[in-house]
Amino acid sequence: MTVVPIDRAPIPSSPVSGSPNGACPDPMNSVLGKVRPILEAFSVDDDSLSLADLVRRTGVAKATVHRLCQELVVWGLLERADCNYRLGLRLFEIGQRVHRQRILREVAQPYMEDLLLATHETIHFAIHDGLDVVYLEKILAHRGLSEESRVAGRLPLYCTATGKAILAFSPPTLFGEVVRNGLKPFTRHTITSPGRLRGQVERIREQGIATEAEEVRLGYMSMAVPVFGRQDALAGALSITAPTYRMDAVAHTGALRTAGLGISRSLRSAL
Question: Which domains does the chain have, with CATH numbers?
Answer without folding.
Answer: 20-94 (1.10.10.10), 99-270 (3.30.450.40)
